[in-house]
Each structure stands twice: as C-alpha cells, then as structure tokens.
C-alpha cells in the first residue's frame, strides 16, 4: 500500500474532507487571535470613533452598532473557536483546569452579553400624580381632568354650564391650623363656576372627610351657608392617573387617531435616520446661512397600525391610505417666511439693516401692507413703483416737516422732521425769543394706536426748569404731552403749539419695481437731501453715515409659507438626541396627497392637559382627508406596554447636608413611591424608587430619570419621570466573570503547586517509571494552552 493510500484523508468523501477542514480552521489558534483583533478594532471604532457608526450610510446608535449582525457573528465565531480549541488541544486534567475555567468563563460571559444586549431595552415614562374625578347629577359618565396647574374643563347638565379650573396645588400641605398637626398631604384647589355661584373646592388626597368649599370674598361655605359644601350634589375626588406604557430610547413612531379620539394608534418608523438630514429639495426648508445641505432623499413606507383594543370604531383612520416619510431633519424648528410664486402681485423685500453701534437686524417688508411695509418706527419703509418716473417723483416729494408756533410771541417756524442725536445734551434747539427749546427724538410713520395707525413725531421740550415730551400727530386731536419719566399723559402746555406733516420718504426708503427700476435705497440726510443707491441681492451697500443695507431677497409675487428652519451645526446641543428633530409625512390615496412637517414629541401624550412648558410637548398636526374626516398625526417614540399599570403615590425631594470634597453642600435625593396594579384592578403596596435605588416589577427595573421642579405659578412635584430598562443576562455575565477569575486564581496559585508535587513524585519514582504519567519536561503538545 502506498503512502498516499494510508493517509488520513484517503478514501474520504468530499463532505467529510470539508468537515475536517472546517474543524481544523475552527480549531486554529491563529483564527482566535484574528477574531480577537477584529473584535478589539470593532469595539474601539464603535466606542471611540462615533463618526464611523454615525455615517449616513450606517446611522447606528451605540447599542445598535453592538447588536448588529457583524459583531454578533464575530462573537459567535470566537465562542466556537475557543470551545473547539479548548476541547481539541487542551487536556482536561488537574494541570489544565485553570485554562478550562478561564475559557469557559469567557464563553459564559460572551453568551450572557449576547443575551443581555440582544434583549436590552431602555426607555422612560412620565407618571402623573393625580387625576380629578368629577361626578355631576344628570351625567352618566364622570368628567376627568389631569391635576396640573391651570388645567381647565367644562361640562353641562340640567342645571346649566359648569367650568372647572385647577387653581392651586400644594404638594406638601401641612394639616391643621398653622401646620402643627403632624403629616403632610397633597392638596388641590379647584375653582368652580356653577350656574348660580362661584366657589373654590379644597381637596386633600386620602382625606375625603376634609373636603370643603370657600366662597370668594365671603369665606368658608360652612360659615356662610351652614354646610361645608356649596354644591353637595357635585362630587369630586382625587384618583391615581395610571401609566400603562413606556417609551423606548432612540426609537421613532408615527401616531394617528381620529380627531377627538382619546387614544393614539402607533406606527413604528423602522429605518428612520438618527444623525443626518434627509431631504429631496432644498426648497422644502430654510437653510442656515453659509451651510450647504446635501440632497439625500428618503422614501420610507409606514405600515398601518393595529388597534390593540380590537375596536373597529377606533381603527387606524389612515388604514386605507398610503403613508410615507419623505424627509427627516435632525435639528430644526418651524418658521414662517416669504417665497415667490404667488398668483397676485405682492412685493416683499427681505433686508438686513446694520447701524454702527446698534448691530444688525433682519426685516421682511411688504409694500402693500400698511402694517408690514415699515420698520424701525417708520424709519425704514418699502415702496413699490412701476416706472422710473414714479421713482423720480418719490425723490422729489417734500420731506417731513415739524411746525412750531408760540402764540404769545407770534413766532412760527418749520423745521425738517429729522431725529437728533439723543446722546448729545446740546442737541436741544432753542426757539428764539422764548424760554422753549426742542429736540426731535424720533419720527414714527406707523404708530399703531388702538384700531388705527398714526404718523407722529416724538419731541422733547424744555421750558425753563420744566420739561416734557410731546407726541405730535398729523391730527391735532391726537397730540399728547407726556411726563418724561413716567410716560403718563399730562396736561397739554398751551404756550407752544406743534404740528407734524409726514413726508413721503422715510429716513431709508427701499424702492422696488420692474426693470430698469430694480431695487434701490433712498436715503434722506439731516438736511432733507435725498441720495439714491442701487442695491444687488446679497451684496451690502453703505447708504448713509454708519448705515448699511444688505438685501437678501426680493419677491414680486410673494406668499407666506411655514417651513422647518435648519439650525446651524455650531448651535446644536450634542446631547439633544431626537429632541429637536422633524419628519415630513406624506399621506396619499389615488390622485390626492398632502404633506406635513411634524415636530418631535418626547411622549405621545393623550391631550394638551399633559403638556408642561419646557418639559413635555404636545404638538399634533391635523389633516383633512378628502372624505371630510379630520385626522391627528403625532411624531414621537415607540412605546411598549408595561407588565402592569403603574401609578405615582407620592413624590418627595429630600435635601440633606453632606461633605463634598472638603466643602459642605446640599445633596438631593429624588424619591418616588410607586404602586403597581394587580390583575383584579387593585393597587399593590407602595414601592420606593429613588436616584440610586431602582424598583423592580415584572422583569423591568424602574429608576428615577426626571422630575417636576417648581416653576412660575407651580410648586412642582406633580409628576415623576421613571426610567425603564431590562437587565436580562446580568446574572450569566456575573457567573462568567466569576468562573474566569476562579480559573485565573487556579492557574496562578494552584497549578504551580500541582506541578511541583508531580515533579517531586516523579523524582521519587523508580528509574524508568513516569510516576503518574506526567513527564518531567515540558508537555509534548505545543498547543495545549498551558498558559
């Protein structure tokens, strides 16, 4: 028989040979080294170089990057390689037990980590403290409203109309007169406007026997009416406001419901970007100056939502419509502005005015709108002409004039109505032959006063030791004298009379028109002379001493539109996540379609009653369908149902003194007492959740993430923000670490003792024997992992 015939692979089938080759590869130490290097590089890039995973082609959060299939594949191959190498190359005996433990611990740790990250979920949910339940005679269903400062509600019965308003909340009200009775209670005052009277009902959480009414201006109802309740048939109570869902971090969802419905239907948005804008046209947004936004279209189909209640009447109102996401903005807000393309002439000029010492300001002036055609108190005006002849007529028009007359001396004079320098005390001009001196402080061509607009000159007047400010109008009956300090109207001084005749031209008059007129700036100097300056869009032009204009746009057929304004990158908060993002939703069916931009809402709140300024946003968008139905849309995060409804029993802010690096400061602990619902509808005992002590229920951990701080008109403490997360596999990870560490201890401390004893027994054995079978020299297998 030849050597080839006696080889291990002789006569083997191709499948068996492939399996042996695969086994040899998986049992290669070099493969393990390569896998370790790749895992190290992958982990380093994902953690230390976030720009790679945030690239617009990947758009991965850190959690998504480390649960992505390439990383899972690398970990799986490493586990398989380490298992094969250990079994095939390292004998299982007392000498190598430490290596087996180390490798086994690493495998267990890796499996636990795959379980942990594969099932990990993080989110949060707002839990409000109480809801007001109102039972009225003649109404089958009670009226409810969230206990939040300023919340209002209205209802009617056979007696008439009622309105209710949360007038005051005292989260830590002390019982008893002067607060001497021990204990605190959550107290709420509700202002009630009944058909026959107005009263305030005071409610104390958990103490319904203390409920009483107060009649404004009269006192407690018990002393006035002989009963503690002004309307005994009207019953009110404070009940829990349970939360049944939590919102998943770094997720997105579109919510829909028929207008007026009480619950949202969720459409998850899978594949929505995290970090980069996706638009098909720059005309859809207002771009920041100097920043170019790349065009990267997106067309994300949003499947219909399933109603978890199974109620056909509450099914997805857009179930038979096609819904797509056609735009995404990472950091933007809605802003109104002007664009061209209207059907009727409506000239609008957008311009930047820069005045030395006062900085720059942006204006949008509409020539045909008496309210919007001027700015800066009438000193900047936009006019539209159709020819050069009209423009020349404007330049030749008489200037504004202030007429001054002193009846006692018979003096009368006319002066140009040009504001003087208010910072110069010598800017007062004396009226010859009299005790009066004047200074034109300002000229306002469009002063809105009640239901009309006036052209006025504001003139400071001195008469010896006395001074006042006169608002001089083109009509005598509207002229007023004002106290220079309080600006209150005072008796008009009859010793001096003034009249104002407005001019056609303001200090700066922008004049636009068809070619060859173009866009011009007419500047009227202190002496009344007028100079003309031709303007080009985007180019600054100095039109007067210390005055420059930069026209940004000129629209002859302007229309006002609302678009998202993209925030410049240098102004963005890196930790804002999706807080300021927006999506463009397109709803279509057949030949009909409508697109709307939706701003991000951190929670899909049921109604505006839950909105707290600066903390929670409620900003749905309403669209009208071609069949006449109205539908609400809201952009938020995905939500998941909690194992059991959770309610907030109480919230406390604990402050105590503690040493902080040698200094003494206040240390705060935020303590929420939660109740979880049982299957029979009852509530369990309160469970405490604080900053460093999470609560657990149903396989989820609840920890303190936010709270309701005091603010204007509110003592706060009305809701708590509970972070919600899972921790599956943590025990397996810990077990893997313990196994690996025990293997290290064995390898470093026990193994040398075992080897030493074996060598001693080998030296004591008769010549030619091997003691217990272990040679005195190094192991014959170089790949035994004897590390």
Descriptive notes:
With 787 residues, this protein is an alpha+beta fold. It has six domains: 17-122 and 732-755, no CATH class; 130-176 and 183-239; 252-337 and 562-634, no CATH class; 341-396 and 506-557; 401-501, no CATH class; 640-725, no CATH class. The chain has nine helices and 45 strands. Strand 17 (348-355) and strand 18 form a beta hairpin. It starts with 13 loop residues before the first helix and ends in a 23-residue tail after the last helix.
Summarize the structure.
The protein is 17% helix and 39% strand. With 787 residues, the protein is of the alpha+beta class. The two termini are 42 Å apart.
Task: Explain the layout of strands and helices.
Layout: H1 14-26, H2 29-48, H3 50-53, H4 62-65, H5 69-89, H6 97-119, E1 122-128, E2 131-135, E3 143-146, E4 152-157, E5 160-174, E6 184-193, E7 198-204, E8 212-215, E9 219-220, H7 221-225, E10 235-239, E11 243-248, E12 253-258, E13 265-268, E14 300-301, E15 322-329, E16 332-339, E17 348-355, E18 359-366, E19 374-375, E20 380-384, H8 388-395, E21 401-406, E22 411-416, E23 429-430, E24 436-449, E25 452-463, E26 466-473, E27 480-482, E28 489-490, E29 497-501, E30 508-513, E31 518-524, E32 530-534, E33 541-544, E34 547-555, E35 559-566, E36 582-589, E37 592-599, E38 621-624, E39 630-636, E40 639-660, E41 663-676, E42 687-689, E43 695-697, E44 700-707, E45 719-725, H9 730-764
Parallel strand pairs: 20-30
Antiparallel strand pairs: 1-11, 1-45, 2-3, 2-10, 4-5, 5-6, 6-7, 7-8, 8-9, 11-40, 12-13, 12-39, 14-15, 15-36, 16-35, 17-18, 17-34, 19-20, 21-22, 21-29, 23-24, 24-25, 25-26, 26-27, 27-28, 30-31, 31-32, 33-34, 36-37, 38-39, 40-41, 41-42, 43-44, 44-45
Helix pairs in contact: 2-5, 5-6, 6-9
